[in-house]
Amino acid sequence: MANFYILTDSSCDLPKDLIEKNSIDYLGLICNFNNKDYIEDFGTSLSYSDFYEEIRKGTMPTTSQINSFRFSETFLEYAKSEKPLLYVSFSSSLSGTYNSALIAKEETLEKYPNAKIEIIDSKSASLGVGLLVMESCKLRDSGYTLDDAVKYLDDFKYKINHIFTVDDLNHLKRGGRISSAAATFGSLLNIKPILRVSNEGSLVSYSKVKGRKKSIKTLFEEIKNRIIDPKNQTVYISHADCIEDALKLSNMIKEEFSIPVVINYIGLAIGSHTGANALAIFCTGTNREED
User: Fold this and answer.
1) Is the dihedral of CA 166, 41, 174, 124 positive or negative?
2) Helix, strand or coil for residue 178?
3) How far apart are CA 246 and CA 241, in angstroms?
4) pTM for this prediction
């Protein structure tokens, strides 16, 4: 029997086969798409290709967090079964989901005071969350207790580097990341922003390059400079329906380091804000705010 069980949310963007293989429980964020609510389930109810095809046509989906009621239902199941639970959450700087989980935990403890529920604010997004979840699985399978795993992961999460680029600046404008003028002139000049996730778990735009080819090369160079102990880790790449670019980036990593790379789609919750053709890469590296 495992020392603890693992729950995450659909922001982790892990391939469904890894979710199932590693016995990871999850809750789906909600995406309102063409006037219909979808609880995200890793491409089962709404395929990634259909989702991004509609975005390219101009559809603007909206998203909502997981509410405390849904968390309470899940937490109570684990509490009743006396199963210690670790929930790895979407960054609190990007979603209210983490706070909903905290409320649900308090409600659960009122009914089951001895329940063991730990919540980690991943300070991450997409496969940055996924990387932290997979590290949690390693600890669980190695026999870590829940308390020891939490101590380790609360430090480890700041070593998860996220470097990404978007193709359509209008989505960053819509999310308030850049001004309308910056989006207009950037699009005219074919400028591609390079972004990362800060220690607070928020998005930071810190560089700009011209053209898609240069942006992909920059993602590779950033990871090359930041990665630690590459022979003993897996690199993760998520993409918003641009598999050829993801494979190109993956091949660059494999040629440089000869290590495994996991590729998957950016899911509905995050893809609603990045638009199609976003590309992101994740690794264990130096503190994410070190230049």
Assistant:
1) negative
2) coil
3) 9
4) 0.94
Residue type, 100: S
State the Cα–Cα distance between residues 54 and 61, nearest whole angstrom.
9
Domain-wise residue ranges, the chain: 5-157, 159-284
Q: Mean of the per-residue pLDDT values for the chain?
A: 91
Q: 5-157 has which CATH code?
A: 3.40.50.10170
CA separation (Å) from 21 to 15, 24, 42, 150, 264? 10, 8, 14, 22, 16
What is the C-alpha separation between 5 and 210, in angstroms, rounded? 45
The DSSP code for 146 is H
Taking a C-beta distance cutoff of 8 angstroms, is the pair 88, 133 a contact?
yes
Class at the top of the CATH hierarchy for domain 159-284: alpha beta
Q: Residue 279: which of 201, 194, 208, 152 has the closest Cα?
A: 194
pLDDT digits (tens, 9 = 90+) for 156-175: 999 999 999 988 756 555 55
Determine the Cα–Cα distance for residues 175 and 274; give it in Å rounded to an integer: 9
Burial code (b: 16+ CB inside 10 Å, e: under 16) for 1-18 equals eebbbbbbbbbbbbbeeb
Work out the widest C-alpha separation in the chain, in whole angstroms: 59
Extract the tokens encoding 87.
Answer: 């929930």
Q: How far apart are the first and last CA of the chain?
A: 43
Q: What is the pLDDT of residues 61-116, one digit of tens each?
A: 999 999 999 999 999 999 999 999 999 999 999 999 999 999 999 999 999 999 99
Q: How confident is the model at residue 204 (pLDDT cuts 50, 70, 90)?
A: confident
Cα separation, 183 vs 172, in Å, equals 8
Q: Of 127, 28, 147, which is closest to residue 86 (Cα–Cα)?
A: 147
